Amino acid sequence: MANARPEQRGEPWKDPGAKPYVRIDKVTKKFGEFVAVDDVSLNIYRGEIFCLLGGSGCGKTTLLRMMAGFETPTAGSIWIDGAEVTAMPPYERPVNMMFQSYALFPHMTVRKNVAFGLHQDRLPKAEINDRVAEILKLVRMEQYADRAPHQLSGGQRQRVALARSLVKRPKLLLLDEPLAALDKKLREHTQFELINIQETLGVTFVVVTHDQEEAMTLATRIGVMNHGAIVQVGTPSDIYEYPTSRFVADFIGSVNMFEGRLVEDEPDYVRVASDELGGTFHVGHGVSAAPDATVWVALRPEKIHVSRERPEGGDDNRVQGVVSEVAYRGDQSVYLVRLASGRQVRVTQPNTLRQGSGDRIRWDDPVWLSWDSSSPVVVTQ
Amino acid sequence: MKRLRSAGTGQSPFLLAELMAWIRAHGPWRWASQGLRRRGYSGRTAVIGVPTLWLLLFFLVPFLIVLKISVSQMQMAMPPYEPLVTWASAQVMEFRVNLANYAFLWEDALYRNAYLNSIQTAGVSTLFCLLIGYPMAYGIARSKPAWRNLLLLLVMLPFWTSFLLRVYAWIGILKNNGVINNFLMWLGVIDEPIVMLQTDFAVYLGIVYSYLPFMVLPLYTAIEKLDLSLLEAAADLGCRPVKAFFRITVPLTMGGIIAGSMLVFIPAVGEFVIPALLGGPDSLMIGRVLWEEFFNNRDWPIASAVAIAMLLLLVVPIMILQRSQGQQLGAHR
């Protein structure tokens, strides 16, 4: 789950003086009694790829459709590039959208589909032709320009839809599950293509996805949504390494979650005693919670080390267990280790040695689990 | 057969099933079906064969009979036309094809005018049906799913009353001392009744009213299938709703428009009852001419020629239309 965008650009969200490009201000959307989007405020900056991530029915698509103008917020306002667009109809917004179903016009060729938006602006014919040719070249579809949508494969249709939504040079491009209809290999390939195109054109992207891997790869920042609300906004590594709630920790990647009690609370570390673990966590960051409060400790499977011998050092951050399952995944192995409390812990280890060589851990082996004090994250909600 | 006998009488369903299986495996059925299949016949042939036979018997054969009558000569006899084949002598068989009827149709302005008038009346009525039917179908297709069936039922409701009765009812509404005129005079809007019955207006009204459901139903099917995200995509690309309707909705529902128009236009061209009941003496439509030739003049050959000419007049453009539509459909799929 490597992020494909090392911090090559600044991080405008850290600069308090930066002007947000898209400002969503206390937006609520109700369908009858159902609250689809619940008091969401969000700032998105120029040149970002912002991913709205969440399960189905979390309100991410409704939020996107409000940015496109297909839904009007029940309360709150939406601003794009300093202008309020809350009640502006979609055909007047400086925004284009790529639909999940692609929504290509079946009675038009690829070229006509792409040119459709430019025709609406009554541009001169020569300019339309040039811009269509240019964008089709960018998505590498120029040799398919005269085909009908039904004569194209899923991946080709996706590229045409992208070209059609980009050709008007929108200030903001909204992508609704852009890669969901593609198979895994093509999806991975297309993710990088999307990033390249976004960097070439410098358009701001807002992507809705339920696929956390896709969000991790594409996004400059991710907004995780649950029940219509944004629960955390941050860079992919923030979201993964420093989740602020049990929901986010659980939703992104897999995690072992232990309930515990805060027994020692210092500015630079805390200790959490957990009956589930049958031991104590020593966590290298401070927590804002009352002493003795119930907290949860999230520990990623890949950050746990498995060994037969007891690791060196004190009693914190280690526990003994018995291997109950081993799953060989090729690049890594997944171990389920049962602790004395009966709790199963998921551990993944890279297979640095070839299978069959060396002393491998097997079923029913008694093992020690250990981790660094920088690895666990304490969440209070 | 051993297994058959071993199955007790208490398991009769099993017995029956096994018996059937045995017959299928060994009996004459298998022999026959295999024989047919070897010659390229299968169950599918039977399914298509039945309607084919039906059309052959009840459409093609009568058509040929009418065609035959149209090329014969009228005579005062029973039947009122000369036979196609006569025996000039014991050995000479005479086969006479009389094309004079068709020549007569071409020469006499009455028939030409009747044809043109019919096509014009049907065309205008079809246009009005489309203009009224499209918003209706659109409204139904875009209404809540729970409402749709009820609304469709309401569109079809007039079919539950006889067509003839409904046309008669219009006489009561339109005539000089009918519902509309009485009401307007009671209101004091008019002093004298407006003549509506026995005018072209009444004929158009009757046809549009009677055939509207045939327009609405295919349009509804086409509009209901339209993917709404296409309209959203058009709006997103800067297309205003009215323009999107003509650029996206109309082309993608063209199949329904053509089907509905044909369902209205074709029967309207040959319509007899509505112009006879609601139209004036001068509203000359080919259906009426046909009726008069057949029942008043008792000239069966001319009447047959009128019918055949009408058929050709309709079938040729329809076939052209269908071919172009088929190509379009192929392009869409």
Write the layout of secondary structure elements.
The complex is a heterodimer of chains A (381) and B (333).
Chain A: E1 22-31, E2 34-44, E3 49-53, H1 60-68, E4 75-80, E5 83-84, E6 95-98, H2 110-120, H3 125-138, H4 154-166, E7 172-176, H5 184-201, E8 204-209, H6 212-218, E9 221-226, E10 229-234, H7 236-241, H8 246-251, E11 256-265, E12 270-274, E13 279-283, E14 294-299, E15 305-307, E16 318-328, E17 332-339, E18 344-350, E19 366-370, E20 377-379
Parallel strand pairs in A: 3-8, 3-9, 6-7, 7-8
Antiparallel strand pairs in A: 1-2, 1-4, 4-5, 9-10, 11-12, 11-14, 12-13, 14-20, 15-19, 16-17, 16-19, 17-18
Helix pairs in contact in A: 2-3, 2-4, 3-4
Chain B: H1 2-6, H2 12-26, H3 28-38, H4 43-70, E1 85-87, E2 93-95, H5 100-107, H6 109-142, H7 145-156, H8 163-174, H9 179-187, H10 200-225, H11 228-236, H12 241-252, H13 254-269, H14 273-278, H15 286-296, H16 300-332
Antiparallel strand pairs in B: 1-2
Descriptive notes:
- The complex is a heterodimer of chains A (381) and B (333).
- Chain A is an alpha+beta fold.
- In chain A, 22% of the residues lie in helices and 33% in strands.
- In chain A, the strands form 4 sheets. In chain A, strands 6-7-8-3-9-10 form a 6-stranded mixed beta sheet, with helices on both faces.
- In chain A, strand 17 (332-339) and strand 18 form a beta hairpin.
- In chain A, helix 2 (110-120) packs across helix 3 and helix 3 packs across helix 4.
- The model of chain A has no long low-confidence stretch (mean pLDDT 87).
- With 333 residues, chain B is an all-alpha fold.
- Chain B is built from 16 helices and 2 strands.
- In chain B, strands 1-2 form a two-stranded antiparallel ribbon.
- The longest helix of chain B is centred in the middle third of the chain and has 34 residues, at 109-142.
- At the A-B interface, strand 6 and helix 2 of A face helix 11 and helix 12 of B.
